[in-house]
Amino acid sequence: ANASEKERLYIDASYASAIDKNPGKRIEILKIMEQRYPKEKQVYAELGQYYVVQGMHKEAVEVYNKALALDPQYGMVLNLMADAYANVGDYRMAIEYLGRYATASPGEPDPLDGMGDMYFSLGDMEAAMVKYKEALAIRPEFFSSYKIAFICGLQEDYAAAVEWVDYFLKHSPPAISMGGARGWKSYYYWMMGERRQSSLLLDEAQRLWGSMENRYFVALVDFLGSWLLLERGELDSGLKLQERSTAVLVDVNPTEKAYHTAELELYRGLVALRKGEVELARRQVVAVEAQMPQ
After folding, report:
1. How much is the pTM?
2. Mean pLDDT value across residues 166-172
């Protein structure tokens, strides 16, 4: 059967983005659709996503509200609206929309997990853990258990952190949990002072992730391993591992360049301090501060 005009425009918009790599043309098509099909909620959703990427918060909220006027239970846009507010730091408004999303989709863990993220951003760790646990009650294999482990680690309750990582290992698909959980367990055991167990887990994570040929995951393990080497006094080996892991982490995720660069400069400063090179260590402190947001 021949595609309708609306279907053809959707296809043209997708083609412009995916094949032509021309987002401007895609938006032109979506704006045409907005005029021709004012009751097509998906058009407003896609326009809003474009506006968010462009930093046009007001415009994104306007088109998302048009979609919600057509369908107040539109879970996708309720979630996108929450993301839009989170992007400008309005986490409480984000929580409001995620709450509506949770009501509209009672069997979905995503909005509850998202609310946990917003509470975490507000610094309310207890409320965050409540929402993460609610998400897990719906879907035990969800990543919320990882986030609870992270909060336990921040609270220096490393034994509880290990328990939550074990929960993640028990419920998550092996392809996902193979190396990551072991890497994090290694870190928590290190913080508890159990260096031997930490090293064993890190070696296992390296082996598992290496078999997956995933540069990013291997770099994360190298990053953790560099700190173990620093503590053991293997300064040059540790620094080489830290530099190698930083290069990969920045290459894979350029948006976190400042964070990873600051970590590397800190590491270099600690190496200099361990070697008695005080002036170099001081310069590294300045280098770390240069990476911090103003």
Report:
1. 0.76
2. 86
